[in-house]
Automatic annotation (TrEMBL):
GO terms for molecular function: alpha-glucuronidase activity; xylan alpha-1,2-glucuronosidase activity. Its EC number is 3.2.1.131. It comes from the Bacteria. The keyword Hydrolase applies. Residues 27-143 form the Alpha glucuronidase N-terminal domain. The active site is at residues 304, 378, 406. Homodimer. This is Xylan alpha-1,2-glucuronidase. GO terms for biological process: glucuronoxylan catabolic process. It catalyses: Hydrolysis of (1->2)-alpha-D-(4-O-methyl)glucuronosyl links in the main chain of hardwood xylans. Belongs to the glycosyl hydrolase 67 family. Keywords: Carbohydrate metabolism, Glycosidase, Hydrolase, Polysaccharide degradation, Xylan degradation. PANTHER family: ALPHA-GLUCURONIDASE A.
Length: 713
């Protein structure tokens, strides 16, 4: 045995290869040795880690700073009780040293932080302080990021706090580990082995989220299973909550409205039935015994077949308020989703959430927050902002973005969503006045103490790289950064992410951010240009299906959404059509409602436009549509080229994976382009503009393509 061990040691000395190539597991917390000059600049400001407190979060801060600085500088600074010159002193005013500094922490709230270069006993140190240790944790991650990004750290004076209270991931994870709309493997929650075994990944998940300020997670799918609320599962949930707590992350659950019947043995789930209310109250009490800081419930009710209060003739507010009363004594919230459209309702689907919810403004309990998708249909490649933003001034509204790429080609398509989200957050609602953006609506409490928030449907699974692709990590990252500060720029976030994920070479950063920033318009162009939407194939939403017209609900069919006929294409949402524009503030309605001012991005979202309509480009609409499809494909080719040129600067395994994915994306972009041109061409019956090739196959060929095993369905 000893001989073998010696031999192995000798071999390891001779061949100091890395045990495993980089695979993306480290995310943006990829702490790599800094170059020597940079190390020399940082070391004098990282001579020791000093804290006078002890709690689980403080321990995590010490561990993270130790790991990060150890890896970036070669050796971790020692933990010390005194504060020598160059020390990093972290904690809260519970530390006498921090209290003595009299720092202006007053305005930073529970989660804010301050990072300052100060003197303690005449010695220069860096202090990272919050009112709570969670604030200090966020500060520590910010400090680490400064070093990762090569910023000077000798004269720091940074104060920051999150703009939104609830910054949540929504996992659409089922109890059997299938992830609805998940493209990164199975659910990371291994329910079968919990609570006995806790995968170390849960800790890395919490670290990653804390590093970008995410402070809550809904563990299970909105299409929920009542079993999650039973005792065996609550024990598993409690285990996860224990792991997440030191990282400032609270656990929430999707509640199935009919749970009192399914697991409670009641005959009804009518929210006005006292027995039902009592059942939920007892259930909430039980949950809080397992998870004392449980965040609350997320509810999808009366939407796409889910049970809800309307099954009993009650309103959404009556349903939400009953649940809110159950969690209120414990400080919990109810996030009630506005993503509803009813089978019986023949009205334009884009109008239904507003029609249903706007009249309920002011009738929700004060611990209810209505969760609204970014656009009025459903996470399409591009949608105008949802008209509910700004239209319910007495009701807290939170944003729901989709981080996972259900309608964006799944994990293999490189699509950076920071720009799309920025577009939505900066949209001017004109409510109550010009200049009130969606971000303003989100971060202005409707009354003192009312909750604010944002949620992202997670793209996380048990793939080694977490998100299904290296670049999809950027969307998780960008979501967190925008949740912390909805006014940040998608561009700046992309650059930070690129530097921390791929390496800090300016040429690399500019090439990668260039790819990321053009990627959103590219997918819009090769899938749903000019305001088209919902052209995806049935069920799984993978690949094109603009011809589909045989689904039981009219508003599940792509033909409903594009409304193409011999005369033209597009959904008339103006006064002559469904008049959905009227749900926006008057100036916005005027802009969207007029062909002259709507612009190319939302043209066919709001208007049914003749094929020969003259576009701003001077082309006819038909020609423009074809040009856009080709432009989208060309953009993917350009991304491929840009990426290929980066090979010498990137580790082989990750470079290869992205190259392969880009090749898939290009094939599929072309598939989208060909299928859509073949189909729309069969309706428009116009020749292709000069220089644009006919699809290589006839329409039948594209219609016959089937993908019964596409993931995430
Ligand atoms: C749609 C998804 C479906 C979700 C639904 C929702 O296709 O899987 O359950 O949204 O948000 O985008 O409830």
């Amino acid at each position: 045995m000893r001989l073998i061990a010696l031999l192995a040691f000798a071999i390891a000395l001779l061949f100091p290869v890395r045990v495993s190539a980089e695979d993306g597991y480290d995310l943006w917390l990829r702490y790599r040795a800094l170059e020597a000059g940079q190390q020399d600049r940082i070391r004098p400001h990282a001579t020791a880690l000093v804290s006078e407190e002890s709690d689980p979060t403080i321990d995590r801060i010490a561990a993270e700073l130790g790991t990060a600085l150890g890896a970036m500088l070669g050796a971790p600074p020692p933990a010390r009780r005194d504060a020598p010159a160059g020390a990093i002193v972290f904690g809260t005013p519970k530390s006498p040293r921090i209290a003595a500094l009299g720092l202006p922490l007053g305005k930073l709230g529970r989660e804010g932080y301050l990072i300052r270069s100060v003197a303690i006993d005449g010695k220069p140190v860096t202090v990272i302080a919050g009112n709570t240790s969670i604030g200090a944790l966020y500060g520590a991650f910010r400090f680490i990021r400064l070093i990762q990004l090569g910023e000077p750290i000798d004269r720091l004076d940074i104060a920051d706090r999150p703009r939104l209270d609830l910054r949540l991931l929504n996992h659409w994870d089922n109890l059997d580990r299938h992830v609805e709309r998940g493209y990164a493997g199975q659910s990371i929650w291994d329910w079968q082995k919990l609570p006995g075994f806790a995968d170390p990944r849960y800790t890395d998940y919490a670290r990653a989220n804390a590093s970008i300020g995410i402070n809550g997670t809904v563990l299970n799918n909105v299409n929920s299973n009542a079993d999650i609320l039973t005792e065996p599962f609550l024990k598993k949930v409690a285990k996860l909550a224990d792991i997440f707590r030191p990282y400032g992350i609270r656990v929430y659950l999707s509640a199935r409205f009919s749970a009192p019947i399914e697991i409670g043995g009641l005959k009804t789930a009518d929210p006005l039935d006292p027995e039902v209310a009592a059942w939920w109250k007892a259930k909430a009490d039980e949950i809080y015994r397992h998870v004392p800081d449980f965040g609350g419930f997320l509810v999808k009710a009366n939407s796409e077949g889910q049970p809800g209060p309307q099954d009993y003739g009650r309103s959404h507010a009556e349903g939400a308020n009953m649940l809110a009363a159950a969690v209120r004594p414990h400080g919990g919230v109810v996030m009630w989703r506005a993503f509803v459209y009813a089978n019986e309702n023949p009205d334009d689907r884009a109008k239904q959430a507003y029609s249903e919810f706007q009249p309920l403004d002011g009738t929700f309990a004060d611990n209810v927050i209505v969760q609204v998708k970014n656009g009025p249909i459903d996470f399409q490649p591009r949608e105008p902002f949802h008209p509910l933003f700004g239209a319910m001034p007495k009701t807290p509204l939170m944003m729901e973005f989709q981080i996972t790429k259900e309608y964006l080609g799944f994990a293999t398509h490189l699509v950076y969503l920071g720009g799309l989200w920025e577009e939505v957050l900066r949209a001017d609602t004109h409510r109550p006045r010009a200049g009130t953006t969606v971000a303003d609506v989100l971060d202005t409490p409707v009354r003192a103490g009312a909750p604010t928030g944002i949620a992202g449907v997670a793209n996380i699974g048990n793939d080694r790289n977490w998100s299904g692709s290296q670049f999809d990590q950027a969307n998780w990252y960008a979501f967190g950064r925008l949740a912390w500060n909805p006014d940040e720029s998608g561009h700046a976030i992309a650059a930070d992410w690129s530097r921390m994920t791929w390496g800090d070479d300016p040429a690399l950063t500019s090439a990668i951010t260039g790819m990321m920033l053009r990627s959103h318009q590219a997918v819009v162009d090769y899938m749903t240009p000019l305001g088209l939407n919902h052209l995806m194939a049935t069920g799984h939403h993978y690949g094109p299906g603009p011809w589909v017209d045989d689904l039981p609900r009219r508003d599940w069919n792509p033909t409903y959404f594009h409304d193409a006929d011999a005369a033209g294409i597009g959904f008339d949402r103006t006064r002559t059509g469904s008049n959905a524009v009227a749900q926006y503030a008057a100036p916005v309605a005027r802009r969207f409602g007029s062909l002259a001012t709507v612009g190319d991005d939302y043209l066919l979202w709001f208007h049914h436009v003749p094929w020969d309509h003259r576009m701003a480009s001077g082309r006819t609409l038909w020609d423009e549509l074809v040009v856009r499809y080709d432009r989208g494909v060309a953009e993917v080719a350009a991304m491929q080229q840009a990426w290929a040129a980066l090979a010498p600067k990137i580790d082989a395994r990750r470079h290869r994976e992205v190259s392969d994915f880009l090749a898939i994306q290009r094939e599929e972009a072309k598939w989208w382009r060909d299928a859509c041109i073949a189909y729309f061409g069969s309706i428009a019956k116009r020749p292709l503009p000069a220089g644009h090739a006919a699809p290589p196959h006839d329409l039948q060929y594209y219609k016959a393509i089937r993908h019964p095993y596409a993931p995430g369905n």
